[in-house]
Amino acid sequence: MSINSTAIDPTAAGDNPDEIAGITPPPPARWLRVGKSPWITRLLALVAFVIVWWFLTTPWSWHEGKPIMLPLYLPSIPDVWAAFVRSMTIHPIAAGVDRMVVGEQGYYLWQHLLATLQRIGFGLLFAIIVGIPVGLFMASFRFFNTAAEPYINFLRALPPLGYIGLLIVWFGIGNTSKIWLLFLAAFPPITIATIAGVRGIREDQIHAAQTLGAKRYQILSKVMIPATAPDLITGIRVAVGFAWTTVVAAELNNGIPGIGGLAYASGTELQTPLTIVCIIVIGITAIILDSGIKALEKVIVPWRGKA
Amino acid sequence: MTVAMDKSGGAASNAKHEKSLVVDGVRQFFGTKGAKVHALSRIDLVIEPGQFVCLAGPSGCGKTTLLRLIAGFMRPTEGQITVDGRVVSKPGSDRGMVFQAPTLYPWMDVRQNIELGLKFQGVHKAARGIESERYMKMVGLSDFAERKPYELSGGMQQRCQIARVLASDPDFVLMDEPFGALDALTRERLQEELLTIWRETGKTILFITHSVEEAVFLGSRVLVMSRRPGKIVLDEPVDLAVDGQRLPVAELRSAPAFVALRDKVRDAIQASM
């Protein structure tokens, strides 16, 4: 492979024109700097990943005609693709059987995904509605902070699987208990970020507003809330991450439709290709959501890191 | 009227600014009984309307403490500060403050920052626009109205802060080493601009600095504070006028009276250390 031959090339890092001796840190070796766009590097990493996957799951004559990893543990790429196509179409329930079914477990894959996104959306919405005022209160009133902080930390320390059973007893097996779980997972990071944001405001920024004649509510709306916004957005990002990691726990019981429930159910039924489809879809959706929040951050708090 | 004042010097007679500020027997301690710091030993001071008072002294002598007490960010341990007979107990828009590190709000552009005080005071949008234009022009930021503070240089940020305070029309402008973090050239230019602005607007200014040169150049009255516990050891009017004529700003630094006074203030600071 050409990668190996350039890696040992002794001139690789030496003739870089924008390197000023002793001033700029040495750039990575030339074979690592594949281009200016990070996307080329990422694409190469993906290709490498797919090659390894393909190598591990293809039958080899030198391996008694079997793949290195059995399909039950790591299904081949065509199997995963087939599972993906099945989950998006109406298809016979099994080969050679006339009965047709929709997607998986009676829903298309996108319906599973949508159901999960809805739960996360509601959980997050309630977490924002409750978390921000609670954070503002805790940051503003010492008494409230002293009283509430242990409970927030307690809640944060609990693994969601530990209390989903209790939530089902309280709120039933339907959507309510799931949204509650996602709310409880997303609420502490938002509250904690709000507190950090308020405490991080420079005292003189408040003083400046006071000497300009600001009343209390004006200090809150014109100074404290905008000053807290960067931390808040970070908090929401963390909360979305927490909600995603909690979603499988939320959908363990009666989680269909739901992509977390589908991932769990397919695993227990040894439908490994479908499990991998779910994992890939969950991961890609999470990345897209996070990029969306990051893009929103640039619009809402352009001053982040600059002032 | 002097040459340097002729533009809009009439502002000095504005009745709204005829308030004096009295610091009456103020002492300040910090910390608890165990480790008590005596920051200010008895300060008595009267600042008359229209004065440009410069308070100079070594670092850590309590200059900033005194300024923050006057601003109302804290209450003195002993004594009181009054404006027009009323005791200062909290910050208010009658005492504007220019901070050493700019406190402009990055979520607002230059114009919004400058109009903020008027907005807090409920001034109508059109009137705010006229005022912000006037002060942006005064500090040379008219072309930067839509910029965000973090897009400005340090000197421009301080100009913006000064405009923001002036636009809210306080009776007293408190300035806490506003040019301390700037390079020497920018600093000199801003000093000249500030002096011109003071001559135009007739605002009462209390300006803190550790630079003797700056104090004598800017002030119509120079105070020197001793090191901690701070007390005022020199109170000197600055009169650099020649034949009753105020010198143009650009010629001040080379005036013989300027040099003599600078040496006098420097001796006072050294004697107090």
Short description:
The complex is a heterodimer of chains A (307) and B (273). Chain A has 307 residues and is mainly α.
Give a verbal description of the structure.
The complex is a heterodimer of chains A (307) and B (273). Chain A is an all-alpha fold and 307 residues long. Chain A has 3 domains: 2-57, no CATH class; 61-102, no CATH class; 109-300, Orthogonal Bundle (MetI-like fold), CATH 1.10.3720. Helix content of chain A is 67%, strand content 2%. Chain A has helices spanning 2-7, 38-57, 77-88, 109-140, 142-157, 160-171, 175-199, 203-211, 216-250, 259-268, 272-300, and strands spanning 90-92, 100-102. Chain A has a two-stranded antiparallel sheet. Chain A is globular and about 80 Å long. Chain B has 273 residues and is an alpha/beta fold. Chain B has 2 domains: 3-94 and 170-272, 3-Layer(aba) Sandwich (Rossmann fold); 104-169, no CATH class. Chain B is built from 7 helices and 10 strands. Chain B has helices at residues 63-71, 110-120, 125-138, 154-167, 184-201, 212-218, 256-272; strands at 21-30, 37-47, 52-56, 78-83, 86-87, 95-98, 172-176, 204-209, 221-225, 232-237. In chain B, helix 5 links the parallel strand 7 (172-176) and strand 8. In chain B, helix 2 (110-120) packs across helix 3, helix 2 (110-120) packs parallel to helix 4 and helix 3 crosses helix 4. Residues 1-17 of chain B have low confidence and may be disordered. Chains A and B meet through helix 8 and helix 9 of A and strand 6 and helix 2 of B.
Topology overview:
The complex is a heterodimer of chains A (307) and B (273).
Chain A: H1 2-7, H2 38-57, H3 77-88, E1 90-92, E2 100-102, H4 109-140, H5 142-157, H6 160-171, H7 175-199, H8 203-211, H9 216-250, H10 259-268, H11 272-300
Antiparallel strand pairs in A: 1-2
Helix pairs in contact in A: 3-11, 4-5, 4-7, 4-9, 4-10, 5-7, 6-7, 7-9, 9-10, 9-11, 10-11
Chain B: E1 21-30, E2 37-47, E3 52-56, H1 63-71, E4 78-83, E5 86-87, E6 95-98, H2 110-120, H3 125-138, H4 154-167, E7 172-176, H5 184-201, E8 204-209, H6 212-218, E9 221-225, E10 232-237, H7 256-272
Parallel strand pairs in B: 3-8, 3-9, 6-7, 7-8
Antiparallel strand pairs in B: 1-2, 1-4, 4-5, 9-10
Helix pairs in contact in B: 2-3, 2-4, 3-4, 6-7
